[in-house]
Amino acid sequence: MAEGIDVDNDRLLIELGAGTGSVTQALLDRGVPVNRLIVIERSEVLVRRLRRRFPLVTVIQGDAAQLSALLGEQTQNICGVVSSLPLRSLQPAVADAIIAGILEVLGDGGRLVQFTYDLRRTSVPERPGLDQISTRRVWANLPPARVDVFDYRPTEDANSATEATC
Questions:
Q1: What stretches in the chain show pLDDT beneath 50?
Q2: Is residue 2 part of a domain?
Q3: CATH number for 84
Q4: In this predicted structure, what is the pLDDT of residue 158?
């Protein structure tokens, strides 16, 4: 999941559903600076564990469906979202709220990396401007999984498109 992220910029990266921190650690190992990473986790128990394991990383307890509210003014400086949330197994209204929130904070040129166990369908329902640029099956994972990478370009004007920066 960390391979889909550009570490050579100064914008923020959001991780959704960090759990015990295995993806968080991979992002840090890839070179994402601790001051650029914001982790969102709903479970109070896991938030405490993440804060102990990664004391220099900003860990916010909250629901990803409320992403803009959780991030506040920081939404203007986000280059990407890495999500381990099980979007395909959530209630459709909840998944839609999470996806809408992700796209709201990403803005033009943002990148979404999404993990899924559903090997048959895309991990994120189609949305205008959200283009899947790669997919990779992870057979070593039990159960097997897939990582999808998307770039977001909400505008139709090709002249305004810039290269993804995350």
A1: 157-164
A2: no
A3: 3.40.50.150
A4: 40
Mapped to the 3 state alphabet, what secondary structure does the chain carry? CHHHCCCCCCCEEEEECCCCCHHHHHHHHHCCCHHHEEEEECCHHHHHHHHHHCCCCEEEECCHHHHHHHHHHHHHHEEEEEECCCHHHCCHHHHHHHHHHHHHHHCCCEEEEEEECCCCCCCCCCCCCEEEEEEEEECCCCCCEEEEEEEECCCCCHHHCCCCCC
Contacts of 160 (CB under 8 A, 6+ apart): 108
Confidence (pLDDT) at 156:
59
Question: Count of residues for the chain?
Answer: 166
Whole-prediction pTM value? Answer: 0.89
Domains contained in the chain, number: 1
pLDDT of residue 101: 94
**Is residue 135, in this structure, part of any structural domain at all?**
yes
Residue 4 resides in a domain: no
For residue 43, give its domain range.
9-160
Query: Residue 161: what pLDDT?
Result: 43
